[in-house]
Specification:
This is Ribonuclease P/MRP subunit p40. One of its GO terms (molecular function) is ribonuclease P RNA binding. With 363 residues, this protein is an alpha+beta fold. It has 2 domains: 9-63 and 208-355, no CATH class; 66-205, no CATH class. Helices cover 23% and strands 33% of the residues. It has an 8-stranded antiparallel β-sheet. A 7-stranded antiparallel β-sheet has the order 1-15-14-13-2-12-11, sandwiched between helices. It starts with a helix and ends in an 8-residue tail after the last strand.
């Protein structure tokens, strides 16, 4: 009965909201974008806009490709060649594909060179590597986390530590995964990921872009200084967060009596905008790209606009081993970890960060 009650309980969700200004030297906006590594969907909504500027459209369309490598041996990510070619010359991201974080072995390579392994109990013991129990294991420990600093290992390739890790991945417990890979090169060299992994099944993918114009959209009225809103004057940040989810999901917001799918409607007070532009990018999207989008939207109001605010929303991969930085991430009943910026025409912004049951409080 206790198990049944737990299954019926709604999982814990946590939403953190804060406000600041892009001109504030203590603003955390860049750091929070840069440390949310694994993003699969980015959306921005611009009220009172019927068409994108050429500059913004080019920025959206010129999103860097990512790569899918099938059955890639894990030891390929710790070779001196890989470390010197990709990790030391830019920001390299890798994430296992089609693995369930709560059940399967999963791996993530962070851009700082940290390799994070989330392993089941049997695999963990077979690797012989040192780690620690997952913080979301419960009474019976079924998952273990192993963290390997590849930059540190590369300093001494003759060390016992490097030999042990290499022996573990090559001989003791060879592991293979389907990986998503992406590389942000900070130098002038062209990416060589296709040629580097040419002996494996590798495919190049371009993020998908969906552009749409929403007409006669009912939007909440917001005041940048009021996260909690003011009755009959402005809406709360939480109400906006729910409303955005409905807009992105293409939910009918009319709340008509004969609508049996959704009774949700736009919070009040609200206003109707003739046109709003919605852009959604889906794929393996790097923080560096999101920083550029955020930077552009920060300057959107440099010239007078009818819109009082715009939003930028980012959703992370549900089965990534981390959410922000090295914070362990789990799935349980949702696996969500996401954030949203509301950018106002006075350079104020709201930042909303949400995580699910198996996550730490956002940074």
């Amino acid at each position: 009965m206790a198990t049944l009650r737990r299954l019926r309980e709604a999982p814990r969700h946590l939403l953190v909201c804060e406000k600041s200004n892009f001109g504030n030297h203590k603003s955390r906006h860049r750091h929070l974008v840069q440390t949310h590594y694994y993003n699969y969907r980015v959306s921005f909504l611009i009220p009172e806009c019927g068409i994108l500027s050429e500059e913004l459209k080019n920025l959206v369309m010129n999103t860097a490709p990512y790569y899918f490598v099938k059955n890639l041996p894990l030891h390929e990510l710790i070779t001196p060649e890989f470390i010197s070619t990709f990790i030391k010359k830019g920001s390299c991201y890798a994430l296992t594909y089609n693995t369930n974080i709560d059940e399967d072995n999963t791996v993530a390579l962070l851009p700082n060179g940290k390799l994070i392994l989330s392993l089941d109990k049997d695999t963990y013991e077979e690797t012989g590597l040192q780690g620690h129990p997952s913080q979301f294991s419960g009474r019976k420990i079924m998952k273990f986390i192993v963290s390997i600093d590849l930059m540190e290992l590369s300093l001494n390739l003759d060390s016992k530590k490097y030999e042990r890790v290499s022996w573990s991945f090559k001989e003791k417990k060879p592991l293979k995964f389907d990986f998503l890979l992406a590389w942000h090169n900070t130098g002038s060299e062209e990416s060589t990921m296709m040629s580097y992994f040419s002996k494996y099944q590798i495919q190049e993918h371009q993020p998908k872009v969906a552009l749409s114009t929403l007409r006669d959209l009912q939007c909440p009225v917001l005041q940048s200084s009021e996260l909690e809103g003011t009755p009959e004057v402005s809406c709360r940040a939480l109400e906006l967060f729910d409303w955005l989810g409905a807009v992105f999901s293409n939910v009918d917001l009319n709340n008509e009596p004969n609508n049996f799918i959704s009774t949700y409607c736009c919070p009040e007070p609200s206003t109707v905008v003739a046109k709003a532009y919605l852009c959604t990018i889906t794929g393996f999207i790097l923080p560096e790209k999101i920083c550029l989008l955020l930077e552009y939207l920060c300057h959107y109001f440099d010239e007078p606009k009818l819109a009082p605010w715009v939003t930028l929303s980012v959703q992370g991969f549900a089965d990534s081993p981390v959410s922000w930085e090295k914070n362990e991430h789990g799935f349980r009943k949702g696996g969500e970890h996401l954030y949203n910026f509301v950018i106002f025409n006075n350079q104020d912004y709201w930042l909303q960060m949400a995580v699910g049951a198996n996550d730490h409080c956002p940074p």
